[in-house]
Amino acid sequence: MKIILVGACGRMGRNVAEVASEQGIQIAAGIDVVSAPAPFPLYTSISEVRLAADAVIDFSSASGLESTLAWCEARGIPAVLAATGFTEGDEARIARAAEKIAVFKTGNLSIGVNLLQRLAKKAAEILGDGFDCEIIERHHHTKKDAPSGTALMLAKSVNEGFGGGKENVYGRHGMVGERKTSEIGIHAVRGGTIVGEHEVMFAGQDEIVTLSHSARSRKVFASGALKAAAWLSGRAPGLYDMDDLLGDLI
Ligand SMILES: NC(=O)c1ccc[n+]([C@@H]2O[C@H](COP(=O)([O-])OP(=O)(O)OC[C@H]3O[C@@H](n4cnc5c(N)ncnc54)[C@H](O)[C@@H]3O)[C@@H](O)[C@H]2O)c1
Hints:
Elements: E1 2-6, H1 11-23, E2 26-31, E3 42-43, E4 55-58, H2 65-75, E5 79-81, H3 88-97, E6 102-105, H4 111-127, E7 132-139, H5 149-162, E8 167-170, E9 183-190, E10 196-204, E11 207-215, H6 219-232, E12 238-240, H7 242-246
Parallel strand pairs: 1-2, 1-4, 2-3, 4-5, 5-6, 6-12, 7-9, 8-9
Antiparallel strand pairs: 7-10, 10-11
Helix pairs in contact: 1-6, 2-3, 4-5
The structure holds nicotinamide-adenine-dinucleotide.
């Protein structure tokens, strides 16, 4: 398999390159706006790349989205969009691209987090409105977007589990008044080198249920991205996510 890696010099890009080399997968080219020594040709823009590839993995940022999608659309090459922090406009652009090419997008490429998502949805279904749900995510101090894409995914699943009608409340500050049952609280903690932790807490009358996941290494996401790229290669146009990849596995 040949991969073009966008955001190649970043933390995730370097992890993908390392895991790819361990698995015998070729990185045909890397793209990054900064330069660093790399064992593959490095470009500052994907538009300069003339090589073929089985898939593009983009771990850059939302700012890299348009050029990645335009390049993939022009060549019919599938794209794994692994960055987070997309706006509603970006989501609409991704949906348009998915009419032409196979696009895989997820806020979290780990199997464990996707299991957590399913368990949190089930917990909301079972516990119901007598329980207040708060989501706490913790990441390293250089993470740029907040809350994490994963926290938003978890909130969406919890809302579905509750039967809909909840609204996300991001952090609390000042005289906010009593908590409404319609709220799902989301809190972003930043510090040090924390890779990524997510806790979904259901607080009821005199009891608390907590579900949590802790990523101990970025390799979890890197190998997830490579699995997604292999799975996506040769697929019909469409927007796919971890549920499609994992199927009934979990
Ligand atoms: N989906 C997941 O499972 C998952 C897991 C971890 C991180 N992420 C996301 O992946 C992204 C990258 O994370 P990171 O920790 O590696 O960040 P990082 O800042 O270390 O790396 C990002 C790299 O992309 C480059 N870059 C940024 N914009 C670019 C552009 N327009 N064109 C080309 N290169 C560009 C930067 O120079 C940098 O080298 C973030 O959005 C993060 O939230 C997703």
